[in-house]
Amino acid sequence: MKTSTINKVCVGEALVGSGNEVAHVDLIIGPRGSGAETAFCIALTNQKRGDNSLLSVVAPNLMTKPPTVMFNKVDIKNAKQAVQMFGPAQCGVAAAVADSVKEGIIPIDEANDLFICVGVFIHWDAEDNAKIQDWNYEATKLALKRAVLGEPLPSEVIAQEQVVHHPLAAHDYKKGGF
């Protein structure tokens, strides 16, 4: 898959898996000089207790290109959860970014001038590290593809809004609204 130039901030989202190991990724990707670069810099330098950002690395001393910062979407409350973020989640996100470049979703000639920010959800009771890694890989790769392609299209959202169900919703706004 070959995509065109990424010349603006693009937004992607994906949910993969189920249970406590579910991967729910929100991300932005954009060029140097955009809000994505600013968000990247702020996320990487604004560390707080329970809110930590880290670079996506394929292995120590080998960060992904485009540079990718991961941030947690819920407070990290214990060492196990931190290790899951800095281990299986980081490996999954890094592999997804690398494969997205390899497969042409992200143009390789733009990889040095793009910035990616990935919000990762790690449930406090997550146990299965293989699921965390695999599902964060799948979710990140899908979210990147959707972001770059501008998916879903507005027409898809309108067509599906009355058909699909949010898995965590209190109730649905079906059949004409509120």
From TrEMBL:
Belongs to the formaldehyde-activating enzyme family. It comes from the Bacteria. SUPFAM superfamilies: Ribosomal protein S5 domain 2-like. GO terms for molecular function: carbon-nitrogen lyase activity. Its EC number is 4.2.1.147. Residues 11-168 form the Formaldehyde-activating enzyme domain. It holds the Pfam family Fae. It comes from Methylotenera versatilis (strain 301). Gene3D superfamilies: Formaldehyde-activating enzyme. Keywords: Lyase. It catalyses: 5,6,7,8-tetrahydromethanopterin + formaldehyde = 5,10-methylenetetrahydromethanopterin + H2O. GO terms for biological process: carbohydrate biosynthetic process. Transmembrane segments: none annotated. It is an enzyme of class 4 (lyase). This is 5,6,7,8-tetrahydromethanopterin hydro-lyase.
